[in-house]
Write a structure and sequence with these properties.
By secondary structure, this protein is mainly α. It folds into three domains: 196 residues, Growth Hormone, Chain: A; 54 residues; 250 residues, MFS general substrate transporter like domains (Growth Hormone, Chain: A, Up-down Bundle), CATH 1.20.1250.20.
């Protein structure tokens, strides 16, 4: 491609932005379709939660591998391979007849494809444009990701309510076809490394460690002892990975992950902030969507409308944050965002009752999303500020991995917290209204099974007043507990912002 096209055509930006859009959309639009997917595939919430978590987990687990592979295969070629795989995965998910088929198409194939495409999107933009055009192109790519997160729940609601959740995956296939048809507009890039630089062993060890770690978290509600063992095995695998990468670098070989990068305080703290923020956002969307469909008995479309303020707030404030850095430091803006998010959690903590309306939740959702938007907009920038140019790609892989891992762990961890809240709320309600059944395990099992199947709350409302009052207490205690924990997580983020160093960040 000649220099004129490289510098003046926006088609490459459009194509990679479309890829970023559908990859992010995949992690949000199914949140509002949970009850319908459970019914269509004859499965349960835990299974769908597992599939949702593993999509982002697999993407995160292979992200470093994808970042390295583009230097060996070539950015454009790897991006197109990922697009083809993504098309296969989304087609499989669209026609799924079982939860296993959905898992293979969505979590496995699309997860790997996302890991191949995501690092290449930023690299293609950086290699195609320069100067102000490069800055603009990277900003558009970031806005597309935020926009996708913002409209994901509403998009899923429209698809599920008026068509089917399957059409959501079909729409993604259309975008993939568009990318493949227009692929010649993307410039070619010469690979910079050879296949001998590929760290296959490190990739395998890191993948095993991440999968075991998150799988152990997912198992906490079912088998505590086994889950703890699995978590420990995951930590051991990740420790072995770290040691292996350090030894590989000492031998003069190219590591999959340069562990020396973690010596930088901003990268360590900034990546942790990214992880915690995405845990709150991903997990929060999951449990609120579950509450809306279970307690308020809303359809997918209305669920999407109710959760939209959170992602709209995230979008607006993430776009506004960079313009404020001329007057306030990065960490000050992020600290303000943390306080806003905590306030949003506190407001929401008092709202979850059987008789609330969708309008009651919107203010708290907007404030929570706005606070997270402030944090997400600047956390990557401040995490990478001290990293030298030659290590930017590797460091960016770290922050992106933390981001996708946070999305995966968010659904898992907050989901587990919800289960614990349900158990506590059930104990409290039974002790208050039916103390004679306090030690009746079947009572607790029935409540747990009800939440697993996303039962219809109208069935409870038709019962006598005692049952209704007990159900109301369970709902308040469980959701209140979730909001308390998310507020605590955001308080940790608030404390971490003060450890960041932003003295070297240039002000406009």
């Amino acid at each position: 491609m000649n220099e004129t096209i490289r510098e003046h055509s926006w088609i490459p930006l459009v194509l990679v932005a479309c890829a970023s859009f559908i990859i992010t959309l995949d992690s949000t639009f199914m949140n509002v379709s949970i009850s319908q997917v459970v019914a269509d595939l004859n499965t349960n919430v835990t299974t769908i939660q597992l599939i949702m978590s593993f999509y982002t987990l697999i993407t995160a687990a292979f992200m470093l591998f994808g970042a390295k592979l583009q230097d060996i295969v070539g950015k454009k070629k790897l991006f197109l391979i990922g697009a083809v795989l993504y098309g296969i995965g989304t087609s499989t998910a669209a026609v799924s007849q079982s939860d296993t088929m959905l898992f293979i198409g969505w979590a496995v194939i699309e997860g790997v494809a996302g890991a191949l495409m995501t690092p290449a999107t930023v690299s293609i933009i950086s290699g195609t444009y320069s100067g102000e055009k490069r800055t603009f192109a990277l900003a558009i790519e970031s806005v597309m990701v935020a926009l996708s997160a913002a409209i994901g729940p509403l998009f899923g609601g429209i698809m599920t309510t008026f068509l089917s959740w399957r059409y959501g995956f079909a729409c993604e296939l259309i975008v993939v076809v568009f990318i493949l048809v227009m692929h010649k507009k993307i410039p070619d890039f010469t690979p910079t490394e050879s296949k001998d630089d590929l760290d296959i062993t490190g990739t395998i060890i890191s993948f095993i460690g991440l999968v075991l770690f998150v799988l152990g978290i997912l198992m906490l509600s079912e088998d505590t002892i086994t889950s703890i063992v699995v978590i420990i095995l995951g930590i051991i695998a990740l420790t072995i990975f770290s040691s292996f990468e350090i030894r590989r670098k000492r031998k003069g070989k190219v590591p999959l992950l340069d562990m020396d990068l973690f010596k930088d305080k901003n990268l360590r703290i900034g990546s942790t902030i990214i992880l915690l923020s995405y845990i709150v956002m991903g997990g929060g969307l999951f449990v609120v969507s579950l509450f809306l469909q279970t307690v308020l008995n809303l359809n997918a479309f209305d669920t999407g409308l109710t959760t939209l303020p959170l992602t709209v707030g995230l979008l607006i404030f993430s776009v506004a944050a960079p313009s404020l850095t001329g007057k306030l430091s990065h960490k000050t803006i992020m600290a303000i965002g943390s306080v806003m998010a905590i306030i949003g959690c506190v407001i929401l903590g008092f709202q979850f009752k059987m008789d609330i309306t969708m309008l009651d939740l919107m203010p708290g959702m907007f404030i929570l999303g706005s606070g997270i938007g402030f944090i997400m907009a600047l956390s990557t920038d401040i995490a990478l500020i001290n990293i030298p140019d030659e290590s930017q790609n590797n460091a960016s892989g770290i922050t992106t991995t933390y981001q996708t891992l946070g999305e995966s762990m968010g659904t898992a961890i907050i989901g587990i917290i919800l289960v614990l809240g349900v158990i506590w709320g059930t104990v409290y309600a039974v002790d208050l209204y039916a103390p004679e059944h306090l030690y009746d395990e079947q009572v607790y099992q029935d409540v747990f099974d009800y939440f697993q199947k996303v039962g219809n709350i109208d069935e409870i409302k038709s019962e006598n007043s005692t049952v209704v009052n007990a159900a109301d207490i369970i709902i308040q205690e469980s959701m209140g507990f979730v909001m308390t924990i998310t507020a605590i997580i955001m308080a940790i983020v608030f404390a971490l912002t003060f450890r960041l160093d932003d003295n070297k960040i240039k002000r406009p």
